[in-house]
Design brief:
Number of strands: 9
Number of domains: 2
Strand content: 15-25%
Shape: globular
Mean pLDDT: 84
Radius of gyration: 24 Å
Largest sheet: 7 strands, antiparallel
Order of helices and strands: HEEEEHEEEHHEEHHH
């Protein structure tokens, strides 16, 4: 699947009147799209800071913060997935059978994960993507829930490993013909010389990953990482899915001809 921004943003919205919790992100083990809470209702406990505010005049239910823990299980392969984090409670209108507001109210508790083990893939990684790239992406997916700056840093590291797999050198010659390490930006520029569109996409992801490595004036948000995921998932599909389709086309032509395929433009002179 491509990166689904709306899905990630609404993973854990649970009504207080509904103890059965299901989430629709891929099982980390088999990729099945439904994880179901093993035991309900979710276990929650109010934080000390939240409890100490109860006597304040302006205190409201929306000020309550709880910590929660879930144990989900894949409805297909039975893989257990542990989730913990914090909650927020909101008062929302209720609706009648006609779909219109009926004048009532209820509380909905929003569950914000800060740790998931094992972490789900937030977008599908092409099967023929190098294992080193997949491994680093899994680290990104895990860090996303608890530390977005660390996740951004891991995104930059993913780009370095991706460029390694694409045979983009880590060193380049200076004007004095001396070998010097290339920064990530320089490596992307070298890649862009042959692949300008993909290079621009990688450069955009690099800029989003920079705050994780270098800090900066702008505060990094999860929306920024969503942008990086959306671009990177598309770029990986373009690199590896397109490559797979090309191999399949070549294979089919060789089998059809029962020998060498016809080369465009004739033989290459050597």
């Amino acid at each position: 699947m491509p990166f689904e921004r709306d899905l990630v943003q609404t993973l854990f919205v649970v009504s207080s009147s509904n103890d059965e919790v299901q989430v629709h992100f891929p099982c980390p083990q088999c990729g099945h799209r439904i994880l179901k809470l093993v035991v309900g209702p979710p276990e929650t406990k109010e934080t000390r800071d939240s409890f100490m505010q109860h006597d304040e005049e302006c205190f409201a239910l929306e000020d309550v913060t709880r910590r929660f823990s879930f144990l989900f299980e894949c409805t297909d392969c039975r893989e257990p997935v542990a989730v913990c984090g914090v909650t927020a409670t909101w008062t929302v209108p209720t609706y009648g059978d006609d779909g219109e507001e009926d004048g009532g109210e209820e509380q909905e508790e929003y569950f914000y994960p800060q740790f998931i083990l094992p972490a789900p893939q937030l977008f599908a990684v092409p099967g023929n993507c190098p294992k080193e790239v997949k491994k680093e992406l899994n680290r990104v997916f895990s860090l996303f829930w608890c530390d977005i700056h660390a996740a951004a840093n891991a995104i930059r590291s993913t780009l370095e490993i991706l460029l390694d797999s694409l045979k983009v050198p880590r060193k380049g010659k200076t004007k004095k013909n001396e070998l010097r390490p290339l920064k990530l930006h320089g490596r992307i520029e070298r890649f862009s010389a042959k692949h300008p569109v993909l290079g621009k996409q990688l450069l955009a992801v690099k800029w989003l990953g920079n705050p994780g490595s270098h800090g900066g004036k702008e505060q990094l948000t999860k929306d920024d990482l969503f942008d990086a995921f959306e671009i990177l998932s598309h770029t990986l599909d373009e690199i590896y899915t397109a490559k797979q389709k090309k191999i399949e086309t070549i294979t089919k032509e060789i089998i059809r001809r029962k020998g060498p395929r016809k080369k465009p433009g004739g033989d290459v002179p050597f």
